[in-house]
Automatic annotation (TrEMBL), chain A:
Keywords: Cell membrane, Membrane, Transmembrane, Transmembrane helix
Example of a GO cellular component annotation carried by this entry: plasma membrane
Record protein name field: ABC transporter permease
Main location: membrane
Native source organism of the sequence: Embleya hyalina
GO molecular function, one term: transmembrane transporter activity
Localization in the cell: Cell membrane
UniProt membrane topology term: Multi-pass membrane protein
From TrEMBL, chain B:
Record GO cellular component, one term: plasma membrane
Keyword Translocase: yes
Name of the protein in question: ABC transporter
Source organism of this protein record: Embleya hyalina
UniProt KW Cell membrane keyword: yes
Keyword entries, A-Z: ATP-binding, Cell membrane, Membrane, Nucleotide-binding, Repeat, Translocase, Transport
Membrane topology: Peripheral membrane protein
GO MF term (any one): ATP binding
Organism taxonomic ancestry: Bacteria, Bacillati, Actinomycetota, Actinomycetes, Kitasatosporales
Matching SMART domains: AAA (SM00382)
Annotated compartments: Cell membrane
Residue span(s) of domain ABC transporter: 48-280, 333-575
Biased composition range(s): Polar residues: 1-13
InterPro entries, A to Z: AAA+_ATPase, ABC_carbohydrate_import_ATPase, ABC_transporter-like_ATP-bd, ABC_transporter-like_CS, P-loop_NTPase
Region described as Disordered: 1-35
């Protein structure tokens, strides 16, 4: 029984980690006023590029860097289109999502990829704890980056000059502009940051957990990340809680058959998304989003 | 005979040497020797000189060869009607707009200002009318927004308190801006500007959202800023008594040009009004152009020039406004104890009750944000009530059910004609017919012929200047767009007409037109409810005045019994 519980909880944490990386990025982008729906493309591109990079260099850790780079490139395209050329951000996001899905599927067939996986790091002593040990202290090493990343993101958004300007750009771009802040630049930068972190999330999924790339392997996790930010009411703490909830739902999908509960597998695949939808239904109205979220900013109309 | 604009221009030009010449030497005497601030500042080089500034937006010439000189230690008024080019000029000085021609000279050296941070670096800071605080951030975060370098929370809080103490602008640095009143928000704005210790402080229509008491405090602070610290203040306004009361010198703009420069002591409200609009004002419009802030001058204190000049206006011009109608008509609109909340549970109306009778204009006076917009929404069927009832001609009307108010005979000229008054990309004819399509429809099909016919009739009747009924609304001037909205609403033969800010943003000719039309509507027996934050407009138009404060009517009086001081107190929430 304890073993079953440890297994379910452990896989919940494992499935939460890629979401958490990407959600840190999405949180930054949304606080600056962009609903970055290309986070799905960033994760998928990151996952593919990580495996490709690992195949080329022979090192899964270098693969992580390649994954972040892919996210950065996709973020750059998105940012330039929506916050320099003023193309509708959803149109750009949808186009990128479709493009990256097609491109990775194509490249998967035309390139030989070899499986690589980063090393596991069991924290000495702590990983021997009953229940908590295997759940929290026996993961692939990049997972522990979150311990530093989450406080860093919080500090960046809530305490730094950059974060203050970013929040102002998301709440009231006109005011921010009048005060001398380059709103579109802050928004571009936030999308780039989101790209790096979402790329890392996708890369972790590929070379951290799975060790290979499958077609459409993120399977809508990017959208779950967006749901997590909404679930969290645009706070970092809430966003991370949202990632845990959705990660756990995903883990249940995998664990239930093993535990002897038989449900329609297609229905189980849909479950996390159903949960995300339900969460938004109850929470979207009570939570206050950044006032200018999703609204394009054009200078000079005052 | 009224002098034509050209005539008055030349008259002004003749009175002083080459007013708008670009090559004029810096600091050349521009106006009379009268100075409030002593001889020293007369000799110094102006802090700000804008020389021969020109800016076009498409076909519109917002600024045309405009020159402005502001010295340290003075409050310099920039007076003009809406659209005279004041705001554009200040946006140029602030780096928000790039001028087509002209030079900017700051403290004697020529400069280009590319963006707001460059302006800040030159010590130019502006208190904006709208859009410059971020609601969801705290006071101290707003204050340090736009700085450079590390964010130091404790230092920021301390400096907010220090600046507040120095100028008597007390605010809690940790409060969230969205929880503050409009007066407190403005205090935050001013603290934000003063903390950077600017040489030049610009205020854009600062009193438009303030109560009389708050306006008085503001001008006391401004006087302290120029007198004690030798800063320069530019006060943008279209309210004459404010200019007369608070400034040392004034530059008057009309249609993008400077038409006069005066030492405030040498002029009075009437002369300023004439120069601002370019002709004598009709009696009805005078009061609304002048504004009704006469209560600004505290009894016994204040500059004597301001006091007498303002009294001048109140007596002959504002008082003989419309004769109170013989109270006759039956009650057309009755709202009883209305309570309503916004989507975020914020109370909008708290027990509002009022009655409007046939043939009268009831003016709702109040500081913006006290429930006027909610009242307008209620009568446009946009706002459901939590409690209370609305009766039109004696029959109860379901509040908030789409179209119910319209069906009951309530016509609305909405507050913002671009947002809810008309569809800019549809034609004039379509906009005219929008509220009532039944007369031009048969079996679900629009008859374009009948529509054009009806539109032509209305265009003629309401003197709408449009090339054709098929012209897109967007191409009409603001005044003509408003005429279209009014024509549409009156064509529906309403029992009750609600006019929300009917003259906001219009030129003086269009204001006169709207004034006349609303009076005519009342004469025809329509019950007119006027919502306006311009007290002058209320006093000019209304037969009765009701004061709204925090979502309830707190007092009512006949136009003849209006006492501005008492009205001001009621608007500020004081029992009177």
């Amino acid at each position: 029984m304890i073993d079953d519980l440890a297994m379910v909880l452990g896989s919940s944490v494992r499935l939460t980690v890629p979401l958490a990386f990407a959600a840190c990025g999405e949180y930054i982008a949304e606080r600056a006023g962009t609903i970055n729906i290309s986070v799905e493309a960033m994760m998928l591109g990151g996952a593919f590029n990580a495996v490709w990079g690992a195949s080329m260099t022979g090192s899964a850790s270098f693969g992580l860097l390649f994954g972040m780079l892919a996210g950065l490139v996709i973020g750059f395209v998105h940012a330039e289109f929506s916050h320099r050329l003023s193309v509708n951000t959803y149109v750009v996001g949808l186009a990128l999502n479709a493009l990256v899905l097609g491109l990775t599927s194509f490249l998967l067939d035309s390139i030989d990829l070899t499986g690589h996986q980063v090393d596991a790091l069991n924290i000495p002593v702590l990983s021997d704890l009953p229940l908590l040990g295997p759940v929290l202290f026996a993961h692939r090493w990049p997972a522990y980056l979150l311990v530093a990343l989450i406080p860093l993101v919080w500090w960046l958004v809530q305490r730094s000059r950059f974060g203050l300007e970013l929040r102002a750009a998301g709440e009231n771009p006109q005011s921010a502009d009048v005060t001398g802040i380059d709103v579109r630049r802050r928004r571009r930068q936030s999308v780039l940051l989101c790209g790096v972190l979402a790329g890392l999330g996708g890369a972790y999924l590929a070379v951290g957990e799975v060790g290979a790339f499958n077609q459409n392997m993120t399977a809508g996790r990017g959208f779950v990340v967006i749901a997590a930010v909404i679930f969290g009411g645009w706070t970092l703490r809430g966003t991370m809680a949202g990632c845990l909830v959705f990660g756990a739902a995903d883990a249940m999908r995998l664990a239930l058959p093993a535990l002897g509960v038989h449900l329609n597998s297609q229905l189980l695949i849909a479950a996390p998304y159903l949960l995300a939808l339900l969460a938004m239904m109850f929470l979207a109205k009570t939570h206050r989003q950044p006032a200018a979220l999703g609204a394009p900013f054009v200078r000079g109309i005052v | 005979m009224r002098p034509s604009p050209q005539a008055s221009d030349t008259a002004v030009t003749a009175s002083r040497p080459a007013p708008d010449t670009v090559g004029e030497p810096a600091g050349a005497p521009l106006d009379g020797p009268a100075e409030h601030t002593g001889a020293a500042s007369v000799l110094t080089v102006p802090v700000v000189q804008l020389l021969g500034i020109g800016k076009r937006f498409g076909a519109v010439r917002a600024c045309d060869d405009v020159s402005l000189r502001v010295r340290a230690g003075e409050i310099h008024g920039l007076l003009g009607e809406n659209g005279a080019g004041k705001s554009t000029l200040m946006k140029i000085l602030l780096g928000l707009v790039v001028p087509d021609t002209g030079r900017i000279v700051l403290r004697g050296s020529e400069t280009t200002i590319a963006d707001p941070s460059a302006a800040a670096a030159h010590g130019i800071s502006m208190v904006h009318q709208h859009f410059s605080l971020v609601d969801r951030l705290s006071v101290w975060e707003n204050v340090v927004l736009g700085d450079r370098g590390r964010v130091d929370r404790d230092r920021a809080r301390k400096s907010v308190r220090e600046v507040g103490d120095r100028y008597g602008l007390r605010v809690d640095p940790d409060a969230c801006v969205e929880d503050l009143s409009t007066g407190e928000r403005q205090r935050v704005e001013i603290v934000k500007c003063l903390r950077r210790d600017p040489g030049v402080l610009i205020l854009d229509e600062p009193t438009s959202v303030l109560t009389l008491e708050e306006s008085r405090e503001l001008f006391t602070v401004l006087r302290r800023v120029v007198a004690d610290e030798g800063k320069a203040v530019i006060l943008i306004s279209h309210k004459l008594d404010e200019i007369v009361h608070a400034t040392d010198r004034v530059t008057i703009m009309r249609q993008g040009r400077v038409v006069a420069r005066r030492a405030t002591a040498d002029t009075d409200v009437r002369a300023l009004a004439r120069e601002m609009v370019g002709r004598e004002l009709s009696k009805w419009t005078a009061a609304s152009a002048v504004g009704a802030l006469d209560a600004l001058i505290e009894p016994g204190t204040g500059e004597p020039t301001g006091g007498t000049a303002v009294l001048d206006v109140r007596e002959p011009e504002a008082a003989p406004a419309p004769k109170p109608r013989p109270a006759a008509g039956e009650v057309r609109l009755r709202i009883t104890d209305a309570h309503a909340r916004a989507a975020d549970r914020r109370p909008l109306l708290r027990g509002l009750s009022l009655e409007v009778r046939a043939g009268e204009i009831l003016g709702i006076a109040g500081v913006e944000g006290n429930g006027q917009a909610a009242l307008g929404d209620l009568l446009s069927s946009l706002l459901p009530l939590d409690a209370g009832r609305v009766e039109v001609c004696g029959g109860a009307v379901a509040a908030g059910r789409p179209g119910a108010m319209h069906a009951a005979g309530v016509g609305v000229v909405p507050e913002d004609r671009h947002v809810s008054g008309c569809v800019l990309d549809m034609s004039v004819a379509e906009n005219l017919m929008m509220a009532d399509l039944s007369s031009v429809t048969s079996r679900g099909l629009l008859s374009r012929r009948r529509m054009a016919e009806r539109a032509r009739r209305l265009i003629e009747e309401f003197e709408i200047a449009t090339p054709s009924p098929d012209t897109p609304m967007r191409q009409l001037s603001g005044g003509n767009q408003q005429k279209v909205v009014l024509a549409r609403e009156l064509a529906g033969r309403p029992q009750v007409l609600v006019a929300a800010q009917p003259t906001r943003g219009l030129d003086i000719g269009a204001i006169e037109y709207m004034t006349e039309r609303l009076h005519a509507a009342a004469r025809e027996g329509i019950a007119v409810l006027l919502l306006s934050t311009e007290l002058g407009e209320i006093l000019t138009l209304s037969h009765r005045v009701a004061v709204i404060h925090r979502g309830a009517v707190v007092g009512e009086m006949d136009r003849a019994d209006v006492d501005t001081e008492r009205l001001g107190l009621m608007m500020g929430g004081q029992a009177a």
